User: Fold these one by one.
Assistant:
Number 1:
Amino acid sequence: MEMDTAELLRSRGLKVTPQRLAVLKIMSKGGHYSGEQIFSELRKTEPSISLSTVYNALEILQRAGVVRSFEAGGKTWYEVRLEPHVNVYCEDMDEIVDVDVDLSGVMKSLQEQGIETKNLSVIVYAECSKMKKELKEAHP
Ligand SMILES: [Zn+2]
C-alpha cells in the first residue's frame, strides 16, 4: 500500500512534520501497530525521538482521520486501513489480523435506524493458532 504521505497530510489540512511523515511511513506498510511498536521502529533511525512525540503524532493523525485506532487486549492499536473490516485480536499471539467480512448488512441496519456510519470497527477476539493455515499465510 503505497501513498504520498506528505500529500495525504496536506489534504487533511495537517502540517507536514518529519515526525508525522516517519510515523506514517511505518504505518503505510499496512498492519496494526501499538504506539510502543512504532516508537521502537522509529528509534532505529531516529534515536532522539521520544514516546510522547510518537503518541502526539498518532493522536493528531487519528483526529484528522488519516489513521484509525481501536482498543484490544489492553492496548491501543493504530492502522491506516479505514474501510470497514473485521480486526481479529489474536489472544494467543498478541497481534491483530484483518479479515474481510461483508459488513454492508450492519451498515444497512444502522441506516434503517437513521444512523449514518462514519467509521465501523469490529473487533473479534480469537485464538489464532487455531485459524486455518491459509488465513495465517495471507496475513503474516
Ligand atoms: Zn485492521
Number 2:
Amino acid sequence: MKSITLIMAFVLTTSTAFGDDAALTTLLKDNKCSKCHVVKALGLIETKSKAPDLSHLSKEVTGYKKGPKKFIVAFLKKKLSKKGSKHKLAWKGSDADLDLIADGLIELNSRK
Ligand code: HEC
C-alpha cells in the first residue's frame, strides 16, 4: 500500500511539472514572447531572432538587488533598463499573467 502511495505521489508531482511547462509555453506564445525569444528548455523554438534564450536568465536579472522577479516585471513594463536599454516589447497583458511568466522563467532557470 505504501509503495502505491509513493508511485501516486510521483505521478502527481511529475504531471504537475509538465502542466506548468505547458501553461508557461501557452503564456509565452499568447503574449508574443516566442516571436523574439526561443525557450529551449520548453522546446519552444519558433524564431531565429537574436533575443536571448529565456531558459537561462542573465546575471543582470538573477543578480538584481531586489530579486529576479522584480527585475522581470519592471523590465517588461519598461520601468527598468538593462545595460542602459529598455526591453523591446512593452507588456500589455494582466499583472497576474506577468507574475506567472516571471515565476515560470525563474523556476525554469533554476533547473540544471
Ligand atoms: C520584439 C522582440 C521581443 C519580444 C516580442 C519580447 N522580447 Fe524579451 N527581449 C528581447 C531582446 C532583444 C532582449 C535582449 C535585451 C537585452 O539583453 O538587453 C530581451 C530580453 C528579455 C529578458 C531579459 C533576459 C535576460 O536574461 O537578461 C527577459 C526576461 C525577456 N526579454 C522576457 C520577455 C517576455 C516574457 C516576453 C513576452 C511578454 C518578451 N521578452 C518578448 C526582445 C523581445
